[in-house]
Amino acid sequence: MNRSDLLVEVRDLDYAVDGRAIFKGLNLQAERGRITAIMGPSGTGKTTLLRLLMGAIHPQGGSVRFFGAEVPQLGRAALYGLRRRVGMLFQNGALLTDLSVFENVAFPLREHLRLPEPLLRRLVLMKLQAVGLRGAATLMPSSLSGGMARRVALARAIVMDPEVIIYDEPFVGLDPISMGVVVRLIQSLNQTLGITSLVVSHDVREISAIAHQTYLLSEGAVVAAGTPDSLRATAAPVVEQFMNGLPDGPVPFHYPAPDYHQQLLRDPA
Amino acid sequence: MNRLWQWPAAALRNAGRVSLFLLQVLAQCLPALRHPREVMLQVYNSGARSLIIIMLCGLFVGMVLGLQGYDLLQRFGSESSLGVAAALGLIKELGPVVTALLFAGRAGTSLTSEIGLMRATDQLTAMEMMAVDPVRRVVAPRFLGGIIAVPLLTAIFNCIGIFGAQLVGVGLMGVESGSFWSQMQGAVQLGDVNEGLIKSICFGVACSLMAVYEGFHTEPTAAGVGLATTRTVVSSAVLILVIDYMLTAAFL
């Protein structure tokens, strides 16, 4: 594989908060033009990984390369330059609540470019059409459903024509129909526009249907990597537990606690 | 002994953080002025929307000043100087201070909770990820809006206050209208007006800074937003009164 095809390359990443290790020697990469999924149980630091990628926080060790640049070493201007090439979809959409749907999508254009109003209008309407919400352009974010808000956020994420889109838990809290819509949108953005996609999710079924490459994180490191099918065939207990949604296994059902009987008997009733 | 030092150390640390944030905001003020509409919107939001409460309070403060001033001055038989007393009291002291306190309560709190909620709902992070500096886009226009609004509100407060004092002094207590106005005109100097103006600008900076600082550094929870709003009012009020003493001493 050509090195320039690697858009994201994470090597031996170490990151700890207050002495608690989140990542210990994490390795993963995302290729240009493909959908890469990062899965794992809640609390494994998937969102933290995205923040490291975007340079919002700095790792203690290892290397994070994005577009071939070492992210932690970028200055503010270079970091902002990198972010302009990346669209990001937040878990809850993170729409600006004081702006209408149209202005939310127009926001990056207005901030970064000086476009004549008719052109800007056309661009925004095209992106809204792509997510099926051209008719909702005048609504305020407060009157949108969760699924609609996420589609508007997606339109905003693609309005600057990014090379990469990062999706942070794009399926959480959506009804089956909205979920299907978002899955199809991610796939069609990847296929028709060739946008590289990085999807962080724990919805195994949805993500398996569209991902080219999957990483399964657990306890700060990649425990399995490969195509969704090869992952499903893996016999490792933690992979099996996650892919099949078993309540107890290597990832315990109980948070670490003192002995149950002892505690019940000792506590005054 | 260790604990004894904790409180002043924390206070000093906070003061340092606020000062650094002020520098950060000041650096973004000029870029923010390139979008004058955004600043104007904030002058409207925090200024024009505080107008009613400022006018109402100004009227009553002026009326009280009329009554108290009359009571005090007539003991020396100089009730005809009521106009001077009311005008100087308002322009130099009560106008800037009361307006700033009201502004902190009315507009400062809403600035803090607005920015705090933007923090809590990831809107500020989203801006950062879109390569838009939230300090320039969100904080600086609100800060500037506050600085512009407070002196304007103070001027309105003063005018209405003087009108209120005249209403009570002349209308109710029977001070002669001519001496009320002419003595005021003769005694109030441009320096007095400037003193009030400088005070109100400083208060505007203090209130707006505390409001945007607390909002920007809100802990992203419901309780965090509430706490930040409370802190805005308390720290603004203390800061206003401390600055007021220092400026008054400096002008004497």
Strand element count of chain A: 10
How much helical structure, as a percent, in the residues of chain B? over 70%
Q: Major sheet of chain A: size, sense and barrel closure?
A: 6 strands, mixed
Order of helices and strands of chain A: EEEHEEHEHHHEHEHEEHHH
Overall outline of chain B: elongated
Q: Spans of chain B of 5+ residues with little confidence (pLDDT < 50)?
A: none
Largest interface: A-B, 21 and 15 residues
Structure annotation, total helices of chain A? 10
Radius of gyration of chain A: 20 Å
What is the overall silhouette of chain A? globular
Question: Which strand-content bin applies to the residues of chain B?
Answer: under 5%
Mean pLDDT of chain B: 93
Brief sketch in words of this structure:
The complex is a heterodimer of chains A (269) and B (252). With 269 residues, chain A is of the alpha/beta class.
Structure description:
The complex is a heterodimer of chains A (269) and B (252). With 269 residues, chain A is of the alpha/beta class. Helices cover 38% and strands 24% of the residues of chain A. Chain A has ten helices and ten strands. In chain A, the strands form two sheets. Chain A has a six-stranded mixed sheet with strand order 6-7-8-3-9-10, with helices on both faces. A four-stranded antiparallel sheet of chain A has the order 2-1-4-5, covered by helices on one side. The termini of chain A are far apart. Chain B is built from nine helices and no strands. Chain B is mostly helical. Chain B has one domain. The interface between A and B is medium-sized, with 21 and 15 residues.
